[in-house]
Amino acid sequence: MAMTGTGRMKLPRLAILAAGLVAGIGGLGTGSFRGHLDDPVERRADRLLREGRRTYRYDTFGDEAFWGGTLRLHETIAGEDHGGVGPGVGPAGALGVGLKVDVEALPRSLREQLRRGQVDLDDPANTLALLDLDAVVGVKGFLSHDKQQLLSIGIQCALCHSTVDDSFAPGIGKRLDGWPNRDLNVGAVVGLSPDLTPVADLLGVDEATVRGVLASWGPGKFDAELFLDGKAFQPDGRSAATLIPAAFGLGGVNLHTYTGWGSVPYWNAFVAVIEMHGQGTFYDPRLADPVQFPVAERAGFDDIRPDRDRVSPKLAGLQFYQLALPVPEPPRGSFDRVAAQRGKELFSGKANCASCHVPPLYTEPGWNMHTPEEIGIDSFQADRSPDKRYRTTPLGGLFTRMKGGFYHDGRFATVEDVIAHYDGHFGLGLTAPEKADLAQFLKSL
Ligand code: HEC
Ligand code: HEC
Question: What are the CA-CA distances from residue 180 to residues 19, 240, 387, 404 (Å)?
Fold first, then answer.
């Protein structure tokens, strides 16, 4: 059986090779192959894509000065045997707070050991080994020469905006860039820091309050506006944190974030400098507002000009890469095709969803912003942004964010709940079967 199998394999492979050679020679002959190399536009596109992917996955923009240097997060992770404090965090603990492991960064021998259960998942030394391999998605470890001590730690965009396909084991697989990591408990990760007084000082509260706020976020959420306005809770007492959104399918979309702060490169610079604490230039005079953004105004976030700028040179590539990230296809069998087809007609017809979620962007071409009254919700999160509105969320790849709920704060647990909300708010008069069809369509996006 095996022999026949390999024998069979050889022929097509040779045929493909031959076809490739002929195509290559043909291409050279007509000049189209050289054309690709000579075309400065294609060359730049190629370079930006590669650079952007590297930045998205691996760049810390120097933020280790904050996460390691100031918050000393690495000390808790390493544990006292490896230059830190306490027992340390083993790979199981890291996976437990929703961190992901990139299986393609692991050498074959390590994969084998993992498969055989020969790796102690509670030993922080193994976390150090994974960090040394750049295998912990979104986290960069800085190790001593002998690799026994963890000296510092930094974070990357991929921490929140990538996950893995679980192809090796839960939490371990191939990277899925752009998919929000809805398992990641950002608050728990930051809460590992042995000293949060720098954050407490920024917010003007005590450290216990900061720890309480971090614990209130839960998986898949982060509060980017907390460091601008100091508001940690909604008026009804729920956390003010928002869900981590998708970072794929953003090409052609005008404004970004749930409240439309700006374009992709605007928000990329904002996050890299203000949230991740990377070393870079950032300018937005809208933040110099002591009433709306007291924390940002006090800290001078409206105009940040470090001696060295490690963010601005990366913005073009980063944007290019993000815009290239495709909307993933929902898995086969995850929705009913026939019902989804009926739902599609309702989406553009009776339910009128497409008036805001314009296909194929599923947001409005143009100024894609709405007042809270228009969509029938409170203004709390909108009021934390410059335009005090909500941005129409692009709906592509909705199946990747079924965990954590829908709308900026996850207030609707399921797509059915979202549809029920619209049905009531707009008085659509959808029947139960129509609602079900619409839900299947949303799951097909
Ligand atoms: C700690 C988690 C975290 C990290 C790290 C992070 N983000 Fe985000 N990102 C979020 C959250 C949460 C939002 C939603 C913010 C809001 O609407 O207020 C967001 C929003 C975005 C959006 C808007 C998406 C949309 O729907 O329009 C983009 C683009 C983005 N981030 C890119 C990046 C890039 C690039 C980096 C690295 C420089 C990065 N993020 C780092 C959590 C994170
Ligand atoms: C008036 C414009 C408008 C109309 C009409 C509209 N939406 Fe929305 N939609 C929005 C805005 C704005 C948001 C973001 C709300 C938030 O995050 O708080 C949103 C969010 C959503 C979300 C949540 C996406 C996520 O990732 O959290 C879904 C699902 C959705 N809409 C589906 C629909 C469906 C189905 C219809 C038709 C029944 C519809 N929308 C009609 C503007 C609209």
Answer: 40, 18, 25, 11
Q: For residue 224, report the distance from its CA to the centre of ligand 1, in Å.
A: 8
Q: Which ligand sits nearest to residue 63's alpha carbon? A: 1
Could you state, in chain order, the average pLDDT of each consecutive group of 10 residues for the chain (445 residues)?
Answer: 39 46 44 67 95 98 98 97 95 97 98 96 97 98 97 98 97 98 98 96 95 97 97 96 97 97 98 98 98 97 98 98 97 96 98 98 98 98 98 98 97 98 98 98 98
Locate the domains of the chain by residue range.
58-195, 264-324, 337-444
The finding on whether 272 has its CB within 6 A of some atom of ligand 1 is yes
Q: Which of 364, 366, 367, 362 is nearest to 327 (CA)?
A: 362
Query: Who's near 432: CB < 8 A, 6+ residues apart?
Result: none
| Closest ligand 2 atom to Cα of 374 | 1
What's the CA-to-centroid distance between 304 and ligand 2, angstroms? 35
How far apart are the CA of 207 and the centre of ligand 1, in A? 25
Q: Which residues pair with 176 in a beta bridge?
A: 163
- Token pair 């001590």 is found at 149
pTM to 2 decimals?
0.92
* 3-state SS class at 384: helix
Q: Indicate whether residue 418 lines ligand 2 (CB < 6 A).
A: yes
Question: What is the DSSP secondary structure assignment for residue 149, as one 8-state letter?
Answer: S
CA-based torsion, 363, 262, 421, 334: positive or negative: positive
Q: Whose CA is nearest to atom 2 of ligand 2?
A: 356
Q: How far is the CA of 255 from the centre of ligand 2 (A)?
A: 15
Counting ligand 1 atoms within 8 A of each CB, the residue from 253, 270, 271, 327 with the most, and so the one to mutate, is 271
